[in-house]
Specification:
globular, 6-stranded parallel β-sheet, alpha/beta, Rossmann fold, 4 domains, 18% strand, 636 residues
Length: 636
């Protein structure tokens, strides 16, 4: 067997170029490229290797480690977990900045390869620049903080260790049941050390993603439970989207008159106008979906984690009547809700289940259509919400007095409601456009009222609800969908937290559209504190003399080189959207909206910690309500 002498970093890059994935008869490279912010811990090793031989890898210079990692995550998600970008950072603060992104990837089961530099294996110059020191161990570095947020984690302190570590990392990332972030930390002196690697290690390597079929026992048990149910409801999770189970879900729903409800990750598996699609379920769900869930005697979870938002903290169901059937490639997820488990691929399971359900029809009758019509009427109402200075805005989130709301209207020079603006965006952009958001009130609004016309046009990260994903993720989606318009829907709070990769999008000619909803505050959390009896405390953006901040975000983005727009009315918004379509450079639309004009409620409840002792009657009432709700909630 031949040998080839390479540095550890050169071997890494050569290996990445030879990794392929095989899905449904199609074979293609698994690693599309590598994002980087170079520092002393990776520029002389991995940087040198990329300069010498990047191969087919696209190399993109990021502006913030968390930001470029979020772009890589959004890319992988949009590619249905079938392709990835790697991410390399320096040691210390650079790798620490990966923690939020790693958590995002782990919570959402998204494969991404993190390659942070590390301190010296030899320890000769310790402590090196950006090295932390712990008295209990010399082996601890910043990268140890990435262990709990990585699906696989390893540290390379000898060149030959790279081989088994990479094989293990790619096994994890290409396993649909446990896909997530793989972190390989490479000591910076070892990155440059040479080793005689076996040539065979760098031959083309194909990772087969075979669809796991259900066994006869699983199929029989699933069919028996569905046929015995009167009102089954299908919960479409992210696993259904990654499995590309759209067609068989539509077929089964139509044939057996079973309503579909969605998680955030599952939305846009099936278009919103499908007659049996009742929309998002749970805390950010529609009234139609939550009413259907309440009636269900069998809940069929397809590729879902049953998060607290999807289940209304496990209060969305009548547990005295409802049973659960879970279809999931992850055994861990299949066991949730004490369900009957089918540990298998969603698409192939549903296709094999179909013949066993011949002749079955649910008892929902015309009720699905009635629920959908009722919700569509509410959605239409939300698209025409208007503000009146002498007549308080008739919305649910009306904690503010008329005087305070008038103050915001004057400070921001707007009378525009967030729901009205959002639905105007939905009506104006092209149906095949992809939207992305992640945190604040916008995920709730889009899950409820955003209608998707085509599959896989909704890239909302809510498994981790990570602020800062929105703008960075839009770049990743654009890399995955270069011919489509991509819209980042972001609140002012999230935009201020992280928008570094807007610059990267401009630098590399990857046009994204940032649609910024500015209500001058952390509006979602302000709602949370006031919903539970508190006052408006440090969530509004006010100056030292209690004036409302009015930031010109358009001017900020203009300085980066983006085409920008300032919007205060629906007419201005639609005109800006139409003009933005014509641009070749990234755009930002600064929309001033009134606080407390987002969607809320719709027969849902969220379990959050409330003070058990307080001198405020409003907080006492909130605690008693929580106590009552928990009496009917389940632990599993």
């Amino acid at each position: 067997m031949g040998k080839i002498r390479l540095t550890t970093a050169q071997a890494l890059i050569k290996f990445l170029n030879q990794q392929y994935i095989h899905v449904d008869g199609k074979e293609f490279p698994f690693v599309e490229g590598i994002f980087n912010v170079f520092g002393h811990g990776n520029v002389l090793g991995i940087g040198q290797a990329l300069e010498q031989y990047s191969g087919h890898l696209k190399v993109i210079q990021g502006k913030n480690e968390q930001g470029m990692a979020h772009a890589a995550i959004a890319y992988s998600k949009q590619m249905l977990r079938q392709k990835i970008y790697a991410v390399t950072t320096s040691v210390g603060p650079g790798s620490a900045n990966l923690a939020a992104a790693a958590g995002t990837a782990l919570a959402n089961n998204i494969p991404v390869l993190f390659i942070p530099g590390d301190t010296f294996a030899s320890r000769q110059p310790d402590p090196v620049l950006q090295q932390v020191e712990q008295e209990y161990s010399l082996a601890v570095t910043t990268n140890d903080a990435l262990k709990p947020v990585s699906r696989y984690w390893d540290r390379i302190t000898r060149p030959e260790q790279l081989m088994p570590s990479l094989l293990r990392a790619f096994e994890v990332m290409t396993d649909q049941g446990k896909a997530g972030p793989a972190t390989i930390c490479i000591a910076q002196d070892v990155e440059g050390e040479a080793f005689d690697y076996d040539e065979k290690f760098f031959e083309k390597r194909v990772h087969y993603v075979d669809r796991k079929a259900p066994v006869e026992r699983e199929l029989k048990g699933a069919a028996e439970r569905i046929r015995a149910s009167k009102k089954p409801v299908i919960l479409v999770g992210g696993g259904a989207k990654y499995s590309q189970a759209r067609d068989i879900l539509v077929s089964l729903s139509e044939k057996h008159n079973i309503p579909l409800v969605e998680t955030q990750a599952g939305k846009a598996t099936i278009e919103s106008d499908f007659k049996n699609n009742l929309g998002g379920m749970g805390i950010t769900g529609t009234l139609a979906a939550n009413k259907a869930a309440r009636q269900a005697d069998l809940f069929i979870g397809i590729g879902t984690r049953y998060t607290d938002f999807a289940t209304s903290s496990k209060t969305a169901f009548d547990f005295d009547r409802t049973k659960f059937l879970n279809i999931n490639v992850s055994r861990l997820q299949a066991y949730k809700m004490d369900a009957f488990q089918v540990v298998a691929d969603a698409k192939i399971t549903l296709e094999q289940l179909a013949p066993l359900l011949e002749g079955y029809e649910s008892d929902f009758g015309s009720e699905i259509a009635e629920l959908k019509a009722e919700w569509n009427a509410e959605r239409d109402r939300l698209s025409h919400v208007t503000f009146q200075r002498e007549n308080f805005l008739p919305e649910v989130k009306n904690h503010f007095s008329q005087e305070v709301l008038n103050e915001y209207a004057d400070a921001l020079n707007t009378e525009l409601a967030q729901t009205t603006a959002l639905l105007a965006v939905n009506e104006t952009i092209s149906p095949d456009s992809v939207i992305i958001t992640a945190a604040g009130s916008l995920p709730g609004d889009v899950q409820r009222i955003w209608n998707t016309s085509e599959p896989n046009t909704y890239n909302v990260e809510y498994g981790y609800s990570c602020m800062g994903y929105e703008v960075s993720g839009a770049l990743g989606v654009k890399l995955a969908e270069p011919t489509k318009e991509v819209y980042s829907l972001v609140g002012d709070g999230s935009f201020l937290l992280l928008h570094s990769e807007l610059i990267t999008s401009i630098q590399y000619g990857q046009k994204i559209n940032v649609v910024l909803f500015d209500n001058s505050g952390f509006g979602c959390i302000n709602n949370l504190q006031m919903d539970h009896g508190g006052g408006s405390y440090f969530c509004e953006f006010r100056t030292h003399d209690n004036k409302i901040l009015n930031i010109d975000y358009a001017k900020v983005a203009e300085g980066y080189g983006a085409k920008t727009y300032r919007v205060n009315t629906v007419e201005e918004l639609k005109a800006a959207l139409e003009d933005a379509k014509k641009q070749e450079v990234s755009t930002l639309i600064d929309i001033k909206v009134l606080p407390k004009t987002m969607t809320d409620g719709y027969d849902s409840w969220w379990n959050v910690g409330v003070a058990e002792v307080s001198d405020k009657e409003s907080i006492q009432k909130a605690f008693e309500l929580r106590k009552h709700k928990l009496e009917t909630a389940k632990q599993y």
